[in-house]
Amino acid sequence: MRWTLVLNKHWTPIDIIDVYDAVTDMCRESASGLSPESYQLFSMDQWIERSALRAEEGLLSDEQIIRTPNFPVEKPEIVILNNFYGIPYTEIPLTRRNLIKRDNYTCQYCGRQFSPERLSIDHVHPRSRGGRTTWENCVTSCFRCNAKKGSKLLEQIGYKLASPPGKPTGHSPLLFNLPGKYPPSWKKFIKP
Ligand SMILES: [Zn+2]
Fold first, then answer.
1. pLDDT tens figures, 60-108
2. Ligand 1 centre from 106 Cα, in Å?
3. What's the 118 CA to ligand 1 centre distance in angstroms?
4. How many Å lie between the centroid of ligand 1 and the Cα of residue 108?
């Protein structure tokens, strides 16, 4: 377990953070731990007590525990911010990984799906001709199509894009960054 879901004070999911950062937030009293079973909130002190009890009862696996010199602390699956009501505006960063995800692992020229390591990013309007690195000018391409296209324009080789590329829509940044595996307790708050 590496990640913690962060809810604002209205219990709206707003972020996914490293579990150690979540515990730090709890130590600073800016966040409370949430019990996925009872939906009760716990301050850090209460969370430590709860962790000790649950460890004694054998309810926690090694993977669920942060070992400190004095006591075990259960990794919180969900924390709630104590004083934050808003929803921060976050952009989905333009990265290779996110572009490939936007294009659903599909080469935008031949329409075939590939695993991520067999895909590259192509500048539709070539960089050598002043094409920029933007969501609108970058598409996922297989190696073969990319090599064929090179620094030519689409019209020159008769390529057509299935749809005009743009910023990913239909996903909140939170869902876009959802790890492949996450605790079942998140499902109550996240509706993909
Ligand atoms: Zn292709």
1. 999 999 988 888 999 999 999 999 998 887 778 899 989 998 999 999 9
2. 8
3. 10
4. 7
CA dist., res. 146 & res. 109, Å (int): 9
Q: What is the whole-number distance in angstroms between the Cα of residue 171 and the centre of ligand 1? A: 25
* CA 67 vs CA 71, 75, 163: distances in Å: 7, 10, 51
Distance in Å, CA 119 to ligand 1 centroid = 9
Q: What is the mean pLDDT of each run of 10 residues along the chain (192 residues)?
A: 93 92 97 96 97 94 90 95 87 89 93 96 94 96 94 88 81 74 90 66
Q: How remote is the CA of residue 148 from the centroid of ligand 1, in Å?
A: 9
Unique residue bearing structure tokens 């990319």: 146
Q: Where are the beta strands (DSSP E) in the chain?
A: 3-7, 13-18, 31-34, 41-42, 65-67, 72-74, 78-81, 119-123, 138-142
Is the CB of residue 124 less than 8 Å from the CB of residue 131? Answer: yes
pTM exceeds 0.85, yes or no: no
